[in-house]
Amino acid sequence: MSEPLQQRLCQRTGMPPQKIAVIPQYCEDFYAVPQPDAALQAQFGGRFNLVFTGTFTPAQSLETVITAVQDARSRGADMLHLLLVGDGMSRAALEAKVKELHAEDAVTFYGSVPATDIPKFTALADALIVCLSDSPDLGLTVPAKVASYMAAGKPVLASMDGAGNAAVAAAGGLSSPACDAAALADNLLALTRMDAAQRAAMGQSAKEYYLAHYRRSELLRKLEHFILEGRV
After folding, report:
1. Domains contained in the chain, number
2. Which of 2, 82, 119, 172 is disulfide-compatible with 163, CB 3.0–4.6 A?
3. Are residues 17 and 157 in contact, defined by beta-carbon separation less than 8 angstroms?
4. Count of alpha carbons within 13 angstroms of residue 200, beta-carbon side
């Protein structure tokens, strides 16, 4: 699913790289179709909405994002708002972190929604955040949400190491090391200070990267060719 995994498999098996196809996880097509939602716009419009969608677990290191958001707000990004869409085992701890930082105005826990509703939230977003903890194994692959975020055509920020960090950087996003709240806060501050045209260009770059690397039909074609012909 990634070049780091290809390299690890070659090291463990002695297989030559040309015998191993790198085919990342594809993105379902509906993530690329915006769904502007008037109710969400009425509720959250007028702020700079940084959106995360997915499961809340220790692997996501969402406390890093909460800390970075509060830091960026204290340095001038006062309209920055973190919208957390989802649920999971870390929610109670994250809610406690928000209270500890007195960040209730900066962070909203929206709860879980069907996957097909995610484009409503990415359409609302001014930027999308993907994050992981600093475990070496987590850096071996590109999280599925990276592809779905790029498909939305919005600026993408990464707080992670390894393949995911590299993919976001290659797509024109802003990347920082895993669990580095200060570096993420710097990127958030920089993003909020960009004008609309600069952010739109970032989103377009992300969309083009999705089209080149993560479309379902193209990746299935590569898989079929590799199985039938031994090549991508």
Report:
1. 1
2. 2
3. no
4. 3
